[in-house]
Amino acid sequence: MTIKLNSNALPRREFLVATATAMAATAALTKSLPAADSSDSTRVPLGLDGHSLRGMKWKAAQQIEFAAQQRLDAVLLNSLDYFESLDESHLLKLKELANQHEMRIYVGAGGICQNAAKFNDKWGNAQEMLATGIRVASSVGSPVVNVRIGSIADRFLDGGIQPRIDEAVRVLKASSKRAQDAGVKFGFENHAADLRSEELLELIEAVGTDVCGVMLDPGNGLWAMEDPMAHLQALAPHVVCNSLRDYMIWESPEGATFQWTAVGDGLMDVPAYVKTLAKSNPGMPIFVESISNSARPIPFLTEEHWEGYPNLKAKSIVDFLALCRRGHEIGVDEPAEGVDAKKFDQQHQRGEFLKSIEYLRANCRAGLRSNAEKVVEP
């Protein structure tokens, strides 16, 4: 497959630099892996976040089968939409399928704030959706049900992010007993730059850390102007679930621009990140959510951007600014002429995910089992 860079997505003067960078990254792909020893207690369980393969449109069973083919230890289905049915019989079949492959299922319900910029009422109101999420988690054996507010857009609504935090706390408190009775803990996600670490800590402490922890996403921490390593240090004691991807960020005229990358292709000290995360919650899988090939702006040099962060002080983003200076611009891959865009996206996503788990196995003692000798598409 031929891949070409989208020169329209880059300043012309930097196109050749980005091209060389992309070629170097491709050449660095790991060719082989050591076998993992499941008896080695120092290894970290490794999992698939289903959003890594979003272009496939796979449902839960297909996600589980693919994860099994990759000899993974868990799968994260971070939305109720992954389930073809929410009937108890279907959920128990999925649990049995995962058990057959010696895998665990983790689940998420979605946004629980009806006062967010966008709220999906497909599963009823926030309380009803959360009750469904708890039931699903309990049925498939998930120790958590992940929830969130929404996106960066919620920071710019009337009153800012605080009314959304208050609403999330209200909904979660009302469902705390139901979750505790089911043996399920809430994993609150920092999603699409809606929350910074200090705000997430405020939220889970208000709900109660006995029933609510953090669903940690370093990519979204970066989007909220935090160095993901500092973000991890602040939240590590409370992490109950996670999704991992790497990142590249660089300075731009309006502030900064970033792209998420395959694990090992960006600025993250991945071994240190994984070691810290594993120490915070021994036995918790590291879920790979590889999202890449899309540049996003963080226009912190504009007045409009700071309307979403009225109380944030300059000293709070010093680590983030230093990170911006460390990075360099990278390009966007496009399908070659005549290649179907949908198939290109699917192949690109699959490739980024496989590259990520290869890196984690080779460099971070991740994965309790050896990699599959031969991979067959489900």
UniProtKB/TrEMBL annotation:
<feature type="domain" description="Xylose isomerase-like TIM barrel">
    <location>
        <begin position="82"/>
        <end position="294"/>
    </location>
</feature>
<dbReference type="InterPro" id="IPR013022">
    <property type="entry name" value="Xyl_isomerase-like_TIM-brl"/>
</dbReference>
<dbReference type="InterPro" id="IPR006311">
    <property type="entry name" value="TAT_signal"/>
</dbReference>
<dbReference type="InterPro" id="IPR050312">
    <property type="entry name" value="IolE/XylAMocC-like"/>
</dbReference>
<keyword id="KW-0413">Isomerase</keyword>
<dbReference type="Pfam" id="PF01261">
    <property type="entry name" value="AP_endonuc_2"/>
</dbReference>
<dbReference type="GO" id="GO:0016853">
    <property type="term" value="F:isomerase activity"/>
</dbReference>
<protein>
    <submittedName>
        <fullName>Xylose isomerase-like TIM barrel</fullName>
    </submittedName>
</protein>
<dbReference type="InterPro" id="IPR036237">
    <property type="entry name" value="Xyl_isomerase-like_sf"/>
</dbReference>
